[in-house]
Specification:
The complex is a heterodimer of chains A (about 270) and B (about 280). Chain A has about 270 residues and is α/β, with parallel strands linked by helices. Helix content of chain A is about 35%, strand content about 25%. Classes of the chains: A alpha/beta (about 270), B mainly alpha (about 280).
Chain lengths: ~270, ~280
């Protein structure tokens, strides 16, 4: 499956930076959700973002593909600075073409799956490559079937999302995300809407992707998943990165009391 | 009982058949084309104005939003009968005013006659009246459609739109690929109401001098005391109107059937009560 999207794993050399965030702030009116986040993700890195509800981890992820526009701060994608301009409502992206290029290179997997209800599973997977990336239908169909096979739901290709279980829907959403050959994948609490059994089947797919060397940003409440798949764990607290490091550093050797508290509560 | 059967047997079926298939009656049946034509064409216009109005109402541009909202509020507030008779008249006078400037002399325009000269007279044919009636129906019921479609667009779950944004679709692609296709399932019940109102409003076509089924029924049913003009009968209008009742009820039933087919079609896959088991 590694040859899909010409994914290359280069073990020896220093990996290029895919994403660079600098001084990201996000305010909703008087509410400060993010208060100056600096953060990089290198090619092949799996970054898990943890933190309690309201810590800003989902907002941070949504700032990466600009579903939320950061009030302040820089965003650099593969060396290309995303252009902003100031308006009365604050900073806005100024180049729609660049914005779409950024978004079609960062595919998102949502907590509530958000598969398009009126399309079959295979149509969901084929939609973005054909409509946004302008690729040929036959080539995309063949690849979509391969991807559905990879996530283990090729028999559901002609079904509608509502006819699938939550776990199957989330795996279809992952296939949709893979179909665009993303530079990085953004997971927004992908297992939070699933019961434990269905959670396992989705986690297995995510684990496989991590082993393939995909670049992934993963917001999760599941400490087991974070420890398992991530090479970097970021702990957010009140809109700031409180601690980051390898899973071993963060989970086995938490320095701040806030993280110690959080981990105790999560383990309980 | 005997008299009942007797009269049933004595009844002049051949004469009755000849009466209801005479030229005038055939003209009546053929006039259904105006009614159904105006309904279908009017519905097309209504859908067009409805989609346009709903889009305008959702616009972030305040001026466009105000035009959309203004259309919905004002046109819904005007009685359809009034709109149906005033819009074609206004349109006609407007065209004649334009013609007057190019066709008539200054002195003619200063006079009290309307139109000021023969060249500025715009005589409308049946077809033109019919088209204007359809546009009027479209404008009136388009305002109702706009509100229905506006509500349906708002009812599409935000996550559906958000994932389209997140994958880099353009606003146009989002509208045509996700938002509009998903809107129908929420809009159809409301649109079927509007369609039935519009269908029934076609009975007002005679107000625009179109010889529709209502006008024919009125003429045919009017009392006739002269045998040279056909069958002599008293005021039979109620009988003819009764036929119209049946006609409109039949049309309603056909519409209901059509809408249930449509609903099934647009609910495919949609996680609504109607679409949960479909596909």
């Amino acid at each position: 499956m590694g040859e899909l999207c010409r994914l290359q794993q280069e073990h020896m050399t220093e990996q290029p930076t895919i994403l660079l965030l600098e001084g990201i702030c996000k305010r909703f009116g008087a509410l400060e959700v993010l208060r100056g986040i600096d953060f990089t993700a290198k090619k092949g890195e799996v970054v898990a973002m943890i933190g309690s509800s309201g810590s800003g981890k989902s907002t941070l992820l949504r700032c990466v593909n600009l579903l939320e526009t950061p009030t302040e701060g820089r965003l650099v994608f593969k060396g290309e600075e995303i252009a902003f301009h100031q308006t009365a409502q604050g900073q806005q992206p100024s180049n729609p073409e660049q914005l779409r290029r950024l978004r079609s290179n960062l595919s998102m997997v949502f907590q509530q799956f958000n598969l398009w209800q009126h399309m079959t599973i295979i149509e969901n997977v084929m939609e973005v490559p054909i409509i946004v990336q302008g690729r040929g239908r036959d080539e995309v169909r063949a690849e979509a079937l391969e991807l559905l096979d990879k996530v283990g739901i090729s028999d559901k290709a002609k079904n509608f999302p509502a006819q699938l279980s939550g776990g199957q829907q989330q795996r279809a959403a992952i296939a949709r995300a893979l179909a665009v050959c993303p530079e990085a994948m953004l997971f927004d609490e992908p297992t939070s809407a699933l019961d434990p059994e269905l959670e396992q089947e989705v986690m297995k797919v995510i684990r496989d992707l991590a082993e393939e060397g995909r670049t992934m940003l993963l917001v999760t409440h599941d400490m087991g998943l974070a420890r398992d798949v991530a090479n970097k764990v970021v702990f957010l607290n009140q809109g700031l990165i409180e601690e980051q490091g390898t899973p071993a550093e963060v989970f086995d050797n938490p320095r701040s009391t806030r993280l110690q508290q959080f981990l105790r509560a999560s383990a309980a | 009982m005997e008299t009942f059967f007797g009269s049933a047997l004595d009844y002049d079926y051949v004469g009755a058949w000849a009466y209801i298939t005479n030229g005038k009656h055939l003209g009546w049946y053929a006039s259904v084309r105006w009614t159904l034509g105006a309904a279908i064409l009017g519905a097309g216009f209504a859908l067009f104005f409805g989609l346009a109005g709903a889009m305008m109402k959702r616009s972030r541009n305040m001026l466009i939003e105000a035009i959309g909202s203004g259309y919905v509020v004002m046109v819904r507030g005007v009685p359809d009968v009034l709109f149906l008779i005033s819009f074609p008249l206004a349109f006609e006078v407007g065209i004649e005013t334009l013609l007057a400037y190019t066709q008539c002399t200054l002195e003619e325009r200063a006079g009290v006659l309307w139109p000021p000269c023969v060249g500025a007279q715009w005589a409308l044919s049946d077809i033109e009246y019919f088209l204007m009636a359809s546009v009027s129906l479209g404008l009136v019921y388009g305002a109702f459609c706009a509100n229905v479609i506006y509500g349906a667009l708002c009812a599409v779950p935000h996550g559906q739109i958000e994932s389209a944004i997140a994958y880099g679709m353009t606003p146009r692609q989002i509208l045509y690929r996700v938002h509009l296709p998903q809107m129908w399932v929420y809009a159809l019940p409301g649109l079927s109401n509007v369609w039935l109102l519009l269908l029934k409003a076609t009975s007002l076509l005679s107000l625009l001098q179109i010889a529709d089924i209502v006008q024919w029924a009125e003429r045919l049913g009017a009392p006739n005391y002269f045998s040279f003009a056909g069958l002599v009968h008293g005021d039979w209008r109620w009988r003819y109107y009764l036929v119209l009742f049946v006609f409109y009820i039949l049309m309603t039933m056909v519409s209901e059937w059509g809408f249930s087919k449509l609903t099934r079609r647009v609910s495919r896959g949609m996680a609504t009560q109607g679409g949960g088991d479909a596909g």
